[in-house]
Amino acid sequence: MSSSFLRAEKIGMRFGGLQVLSDIDLEIGERSLTAIIGPNGAGKSTFLNVLTGVLRPTEGVVAFRGQAIGGLPLHRIARLGIARKFQIPSIFSSLTVVENLQVARWGSARTEWPEDELLEMIGLRDRRSVQGAELAHGEKQWLEIGMAIASSPTLLLLDEPTAGMTPQETADTAALIHRLNKKLAVIAVEHDISFVRALGADTLVLHQGRFFRQGPFAEIEADEAVRDVYLGRR
Amino acid sequence: MRDPSWLIAFAIGLLLLALLPTWVDSYNLTVLRDALIFGLFAASLDFFWGRTGILCFGHSVFFGLGAYIMALVSMTPDIPLPSLLGLLAGITGAGLLAGAVGYFLFFGGVRGSYFTIVTLALSVIAQQVAVSWSSVTGGDTGLIGIPPLMFGGLDLSGDVASYFTVVALLATVLLGLWALSRGRWGRILTAISDNEMRAAALGHNAALRLTMTFVISASTAALAGALYVAMAGLVAPDLIGLLLATEVIVWVAVGGRGTLIGPVVGAVLVQRAQQEISSFNPSLWPLIIGCVFVLIVFLLPEGVLSIGTRIRALFRRGAA
Amino acid sequence: MEVAATTLLNALTLISILALVGLGLTISFGLMNVTNLAHGEFVAIGAFSVYYIQSLGGSFWLGLMVAPLAGAAAGFILEWLILRHLYDRPVGAILATWGISLILQQSLELIFGLGAKPVVPPVDGVSDLGLITYPTYRLILISIAATTLLAVLLLLRRTGFGLDIRTVIQNREMAEAVGINTRRAFAVAFAFGAAVAGLAGALVSPLATVLPQMGVNYLANSFFVVIVGGAGSITGLLAGSSFVGGFTSILNYQISPSLAQALVLTAAIVLVRLRPNGFVPVGSRFS
């Protein structure tokens, strides 16, 4: 296998008798921006778990810079430069905002983002000494994105980053991702189409655990077959 | 506890301990000295339990291991620097055992109650081995005639000298553990006990961090054990057994988990109470310890020192 | 050959006792996720019941019937007064049950006085098994234990109450959703485990040194059983008891009992590392 940045080849995933993913390929380059969409149950989250190495696929292989990552311990994957934001905000509730960012930064050898710039970016500068447990839901989401960035990754995976956000917050998140994308590659799993439109990224559509379409979002949006999938006509 | 108030409490405590010999007789001084050694032991447990939330129910194993190794090494005929080598060997031995236990349990994914149970079993067995391996450990009676602390020509065996040795070591170790637990190390530990998977996804090796914390905690316990036998001059199986393992939990719980100073105060106060009560009925003590366990769980989960915080909170509410 | 047969029967004696004591622990651990450090005292209460009945002139068999009732009563009270308030505080439960354990030990000593208590076995002598002779009482012990375990297995597999218990072990929320009264199930299961531990105490009383502090050793050993076998299943209980009991009995011939125990604990710790998902179910190890 050539050592491309991130490459998933012929990915299949089976839980017991249930085939959740079959025969999916994906290859992305450094500082690329990719969105993964699809209706509920398309296997988006499972695919993301496979991409981050948390789940070892039953078929196929995921390689990051040429190294297979399926089933590696979580901290080893993180140290390769892969960061992840979970769907449910999971921050350290007994630590303050700034301590959360510090712990994230100490996990990796590199420190590319100064603390203050990070706090500014995620809009929590005035809340730096507040305990994680006392943050509002949206603030937790932002903090978690901040933690993922603080670990100075070269690949950032976001699982539904705008879940529970207001339209304004969603737009801000898209702008933040564009800004980050200048330094690192981003993959976002999302079902909020307006957010994906704002991202304007290369888009992979999954349907019933299989590859369905891939291309620039404008093309995907214009595709009649994709609409059918979303409206349940197919 | 916030930083300034911890340092103030530490400074006041140290000042008090430093001035005490001017008005306390030498008998009471040695009693306090021994209680402070057990206070150091309590702080060692608190460093692990307080920061990780994982209870070790066999910490006496490390205290006792330090004690027995100190006894055996420093009693070896013609050994150079017996006290120093004994201390180092005891600390290293306990650290290695803790490292092995941590490697098998923490890296095997064991946390919480399972860890507590395995360490409990460890202390039951350690005591049995100490009793039955009598050719080395002296069996039930233990070993006597352990030489007092001597470093080259420096004799620290006198009542006042040994007292100040203990106070100095206690203060140094407490400051060290405190610095460790309020800095990077402690924050990462807090993060791991909050949400281990998240910490791992940020690149932290939780099992390794827990194991290293356990090793530091066990080595500190061994230091206390080694000091104790050098001061007392004898070692016996009750220094490694289950009763001591549970008493140290009481000291930490009474003094307040996660404060480091609290457990030292708890150790001194509880042992004082133990002497008072045992002097008129020795079999009453285990019964009282039992009741204290139950009462702490239901009434004072934050420890006896938390009464102060609660009263202050009451006043503030009254004033507002 | 004779040695092998005797070792086998010795192992069976030990395995029976471990399985009976371990049953209550695996129930409270697997079902309620609670670590009960006062479990060894149920064994002591069972043994003291037999001693007390005999000291009043009653027979061993009467004592054997009273022991599980005494154990059940103690278990019921402990669950009602202490444990049910601590189901969401695992460390609190550990500390409180340890306190209760000390209180029970000291109370037994205050009531019955210092020193070991004599218990007379119901039958003396040995039975000729062809190949070897073996103490008759130990054979009775093994049969009573085996019968009890079989009855427990049937109770869990064939009755409505057993179904409730298995549902709660599988999924507590689901059990509540289908209308099982989990609190009541906990209380009954806990008292039941205590009763079986009391029975075990009565069975060992003619062989063991009956002391208020006798429970601690049974506690440690039966925790090994649960660690090795995994919590919450009868199969795991039997596997764990066989491992610990068999290993200890074989080693007892070569080395001192305490060294044998140390080796068994070491083996159990190593097993946890080698088979993190095998012997021990992941879900119950994390709390």
TrEMBL record, chain A:
Coiled coil: none annotated. It comes from Tianweitania sediminis. Keywords: ATP-binding, Nucleotide-binding, Transport. It holds the Pfam family ABC_tran. The keyword ATP-binding applies. Residues 6-233 form the ABC transporter domain. This is ABC transporter ATP-binding protein. InterPro entries: AAA+_ATPase, ABC_AA/LPS_Transport, ABC_transporter-like_ATP-bd, P-loop_NTPase. It comes from the Bacteria. GO terms for cellular component: plasma membrane. Transmembrane segments: none annotated. GO terms for molecular function: ATP binding; ATP hydrolysis activity.
UniProtKB/TrEMBL annotation, chain B:
It comes from the Bacteria. Its main location: membrane. The chain crosses the membrane at residues 7-24, 30-49, 54-73, 85-107, 114-133, 160-180, 214-236, 248-270, 282-300. It is a multi-pass membrane protein. GO terms for cellular component: plasma membrane. It is found in: Cell membrane. GO terms for molecular function: branched-chain amino acid transmembrane transporter activity. The keyword Nucleus does not apply. Keywords: Cell membrane, Membrane, Transmembrane, Transmembrane helix. InterPro entries: ABC_transp_permease (IPR001851), LivM-like (IPR043428). PANTHER family: HIGH-AFFINITY BRANCHED-CHAIN AMINO ACID TRANSPORT PROTEIN BRAE (PTHR30482:SF10), HIGH-AFFINITY BRANCHED-CHAIN AMINO ACID TRANSPORT SYSTEM PERMEASE (PTHR30482). This is Branched-chain amino acid ABC transporter permease. It comes from Tianweitania sediminis.
TrEMBL record, chain C:
Belongs to the binding-protein-dependent transport system permease family. LivHM subfamily. One of its GO terms (molecular function) is transmembrane transporter activity. Its main location: membrane. GO terms for biological process: amino acid transport. It is a multi-pass membrane protein. The lineage of its organism: Bacteria, Pseudomonadati, Pseudomonadota, Alphaproteobacteria, Hyphomicrobiales. Keywords: Amino-acid transport, Cell membrane, Membrane, Transmembrane, Transmembrane helix, Transport. It comes from the Bacteria. One of its GO terms (cellular component) is plasma membrane. It is found in: Cell membrane. It holds the Pfam family BPD_transp_2. The chain crosses the membrane at residues 12-31, 60-83, 95-116, 136-156, 186-211, 223-247, 259-276. This is Branched-chain amino acid ABC transporter permease. InterPro entries: ABC_transp_permease, BCAA_transport_permease.
